[in-house]
Amino acid sequence: MSGHGRKVGETILKVEKLRVEVRTDRGNGPTLVHDVSLELKRGEVIGLIGESGAGKSTIGLCTLGYTRGGCRMTGGQLFFEGRDIRQMSATERRALRGPGVSYIAQSAAASFNPAMTLMQQVCEIPVKHGILSVAEAEATAKRLFRELELPNPDTFGDRYPHQVSGGQLQRAMAAMAMAAKPDILVFDEPTTALDVTTQVEVLASFRKLIREHGTAAIYITHDLAVVAQIADHIMVLRHGKMVELGTCDQILQAPREEYTRRLVAERVAGHAFREDLDTGEAPLLQVSNVVASYHSLLRVIDNVSVEVRRGDTVAVVGESGSGKSTLARVIIGLLPRQSGDIRFQGQSLPPALKDRSKDQLRRVQMIYQMADVALNPNQTLHEIIGRPVQFYFGRSREDVRKRVLELLRLMDLPETFINRKPGELSGGQKQRIGIARALAAEPDLIICDEVTSALDQLVGEEILRLLKKLQEELGLAYLFITHDLGTVKRIANKVAVMLKGKLVAGGETSKVFAPPYHPYTKLLLSSVPEMRSDWLDEVLASRVQTLAAVRAAQVSLPG
Amino acid sequence: MLRLIAQRLGLGLITLWAASILIFVGTEILPGDLASAILQNSATPESLAEMRSELGLDRPAIVRYGEWLGNAARGDLGHSLASKRDVVEELSPRLKNTVFLAAYAAIIAVPLAVALGLMAAIWQGGVYDRLVNFVTLLTISVPEYLVGYILIKYLSVQMGWFPSLANVTPETPTLDRIYLTFLPVMTLVLVVVAHMMRMTRASVLNIMASPYIEMAFLKGLPKWRVVVRHAFPNALAPIINVIALNLAYLIVGVVVVEAVFVYPGLGQLMVDAVSKHDVPVVQACGLVFAAAFILLNMIADILAILSNPRLRHPR
């Protein structure tokens, strides 16, 4: 179905009133996709955007004639080259997948088979569909590796997935999808799991690939700024329904619908820095020259110093592997420091958690990225939130219950939730419970480890607002670990930028995030996608210099 | 990775040593005295004492243990009290028989179980899956002697296809052996297939929920290829462990089947030796069983480590 008759502008996919419902043995579940229609021409890219539950991945998978467990396409048509995918037999659908429509998943690390080499997996589509011989497929793969700027393209394929980096793996997945020259590529959040700086590079290679091969693509993401760099048209989805469809520029500059306006506004908002008010007060938490490592081999935290005062929000930013979460573990005592000092209200904290007093434990609390995993699914909210109240203050049963209800009200959650279990809550509500549990200890400092990154944009926004409100009411201090620089600008009065376990820049956010930048800060800031379609071109143009500056600066780092 | 394997080897040796202590202590507290067992009716206090000192039983247990272990390490397992023959000579034809039976059963059972398990995973929830699950559950629930007698009744007594007795001698040619031991082997196969087949099915299905399996389907691969090529290699570790456990059972746990088919294996020898108070033979059998069990589990551990690509191909 590929090869001949490729004409740009000819319709390759036409979806008409697609409906997807959950069908189980116990009857019909909710409808995931409501009568969505779209048209894709050869050489064109359409972006599907929306929050989780918008149905965008479901639509993407339907174009491969695939639905996840329990779901079924119950209405509409999907014409691929004039043939309805819904009417295809199982064999015809298999023939469609790969050579016709090809899929690029969000997490390449999870989507590559750990027991096979990259080459084996990349060649599977063309070889098993009988399009190319093994030798031809390998030659194609090597050419694609080269096009995607992967290191040592001739031997890259001999490696196993765990032997290459996340960004490389994501590009290898693009090579796998392209190996049989599909008519349509479906990108399902392909850069979401990557660091911002890696995202820029991967995004650029995807765009180059699509343009050079003239392949049509469906690009699914929750990030408008990302899709703006690559798509011709954007469809905004919410709760499985189409909200708006328009050209890229129209959606960004003149959104017609209220929901789109909110999405755009949230992404553009927050450029004003939060002011840093120096009260001259003694610091609450003082981390000085701390060194820590796992198995005493590599210094994961190397000579880091940070100060937090009452009412401060100090952001710790950096890419994955920079040691920012490890710093949180060191402060809390889960990973004992090897040298340096951590003082809380002037008092040195013992390195290990088990040596700290109950009061020292109580004063520093933590909120986690995955609220899901951090809450015991078998306990009610009463037990979850009541436990620290009981543990630190030894209150009576009646008082504990009263306090839990009070905390639920503070979280804007109904009191009736007290007997629920985490499984009955949404992602945002679970994170609120995480906050309530931390507050139950009446701490002075809360360490927030990527607390919004697993949440949808607008839900994350609400959590940030709640944290801000609590800070104003209770005078809390936050140590806010994040990779989202947009958030940092808005909520943090101080920031610490980490690179490979070292602190490269620190101080008031308005100073660190304004020129003259540290080269690495500049790289990070320039890598945050912006809401204009020419952003990627600009970044790529200045990227070589920025990277060179970072490399030069790294050499001169102390230690 | 070599360090991991060396660790496993070391652990295996330590376990074997611990097993040797248990075996020695076990035979030590066996009711009845060795000397009186040998002398039986002719025992007088004097002759008993004389016999004890002749056997070295008057020395402390710890000294005798050290001597026994030292000799065993050199391959000298002492002399049988009943037949006065060298224990190694006594044991080796029996051990050969046992290993032959176990290997014969394993060669049939392992590929059969894995294939049945994979097919059950491919047609999960279908008629085949339910049927094979039911049948294997049945064979695992029925005691092995009953399975043996049922096979004898139908295949031997009624049809007359196979002999009901597997009385092989060291002189029996291999082809005859394969024929003579067919029924006991079938009994063992029926007993061990279920466990391995169920583990294959379960661990493959467990892997089938992984994102890379969905990816394989999205590449348009047929289901059998997804199961065999993508899921199975990642499901190997638990399967290997269960196979090892069953192979160990084939060597150390077949006394009942040997008895049903009057097969001269190691299990029979050990039971006889226990009833005759033939301590050196009991100890030697115990050691061989322990070594077989530990060796198989150790091989399984090492294979499971090797099946992990992260360990086989470090970054």
Rg of Cα set of chain A: 25 Å
Proportion of residues in extended strands of chain B:
under 5%
User: Which regions of chain B have little confidence, pLDDT < 50, spanning 5+ residues?
Assistant: none
The CATH superfamily label of the largest domain in chain A reads P-loop containing nucleotide triphosphate hydrolases
- Helix/strand order of chain B: HHHHHHHHHHHHHHHH
Q: What's the number of domains of chain B? A: 2
Number of strands of chain A: 20
- In whole angstroms, the N-to-C terminal distance of chain B is 12 Å
- Radius of gyration computed on alpha carbons of chain B: 24 Å
Mass-distribution shape of chain A: globular
Which stretches of chain A are poorly predicted, pLDDT < 50 over at least 5 residues?
1-5
Structural class of chain A comes to alpha/beta
- Number of domain units of chain A: 2
Average pLDDT of chain A works out at 87
**Biggest beta sheet attributes of chain A:** 6 strands, mixed
Report the average pLDDT across residues of chain B.
84
Please tell me the CATH architecture of the largest domain in chain B by its name.
Orthogonal Bundle
Q: Spatial order of the strands in the main sheet of chain A? A: 6-7-8-3-9-10
CATH T-level topology of the largest domain in chain B: MetI-like fold
- As a percent range, the share of helical residues of chain A equals 25-40%
Oligomer: heterodimer
Structural write-up:
- The complex is a heterodimer of chains A (559) and B (315).
- Chain A is of the alpha/beta class.
- Chain A has two domains: 11-268, Rossmann fold, CATH 3.40.50.300; 285-372 and 441-555, 3-Layer(aba) Sandwich (Rossmann fold), CATH 3.40.50.300.
- Helix content of chain A is 38%, strand content 24%.
- Chain A has 21 helices and 20 strands.
- In chain A, the strands form four sheets. A six-stranded mixed beta sheet of chain A has the order 6-7-8-3-9-10, with helices on both faces.
- The longest helix of chain A has 21 residues, at 535-555.
- The model of chain A is unreliable at 1-5 (pLDDT under 50).
- With 315 residues, chain B is mainly α.
- The model of chain B has no long low-confidence stretch (mean pLDDT 84).
- Chain B has two domains: 2-73; 87-312, MetI-like fold (Orthogonal Bundle).
- Chain B has helices spanning 2-28, 34-39, 45-55, 61-73, 87-122, 127-141, 144-158, 174-180, 182-207, 211-218, 223-231, 236-252, 255-260, 266-275, 279-306, 309-312.
- The chains are: A alpha/beta (559), B mainly alpha (315).
- The A-B interface holds A 61, 64, 66, 68, 93-99, 102-103, 105, 107, 110-116, 124-125, 128-129, 159-160, 162-163, 176 and B 210-212, 214-222, 225, 229-230, 233-234, 307, 309-310, 313, 315.
